[in-house]
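Late entry, evening session. Most of the bench is empty. Finally got around to the prediction I had been postponing all week. Sequence below, unchanged from the version circulated by S.P.
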Amino acid sequence: MSEVESVAVVGAGFMGTGIAEAVAVAGMPVIVRDVDDVALGRASERLDASIARAVRGGKLDAAAAQAVRERIDLTTDLEAISEAGLVIEAVPEDERLKLDVMGAVAEVVSDDAIVASNTSSIPIAELAQAIRLPERMLGLHFFSPVPVMMLVEVVVALDTSVETIDRAKEFVEKLGKRPIETKDRSGFIVNMLLVPYLMAAVRMYEEGFASREDIDNGMKLGCGHPMGPLTLCDFIGLDVLYAVCDSLYEEFKRDEYAPPPLMKRMVASGRLGRKSGRGFYDYTS
């Protein structure tokens, strides 16, 4: 079984750059591909800021930080990913977009490469139809912020081979993270458990049952959670959560997965949480 030695990430957003940083910290070269220089400029700024935080926090010294940054190559050239042993798709949570990206990736990578999606809800079997040799396709669902979160869900589709699973788990462990294996069902393990809890909090707030602060403090102080559910919604991004809810409800048709009307209106208004400056809380100040 060959070890993954080089990685490409397709999609230079918050998750994509986080994955790239984790790979580079583990000592592997990584190529990050996106469609234009504007996206790559934002990605470069995000990487520099995150690595600087790691230095300030004592996780990296200056020399190690420079080495990490030098292992990350940003490009708009899709052909640049052709030699990667593992390609991780990390574009926005839109099935049509992900299928298009998978098809493009399949045209340039070798048949020995593992192809993974960082999707949080879309069935891997649906994405695997876009590539040759679907036995080399699986999900690698990282959690935000990637550099500090220890968990990666390894999502096994119907056709995923045992060798692909083993190589993927070995890669995750090389990053210093813990892989957990899950079947290919919408939401996987974590979101199937987490989303009903978060949506219950949104409904409670929507109905005026309690204030946002009291809902959050109830779970922080009463259950020992590091942050309350509405703060966590803002941290994840309400647009991302809405897509996950839609996928879960479509698959299981259970009311606890349905996004409340308030969520739909907040997303339509651009109140997406921390990343937009406003969600259940205001972050502009």
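Two things to note before I forget:
The chain has a mean pLDDT of 95.
The two ends are 52 Å apart (CA to CA).
Will write this up properly tomorrow.
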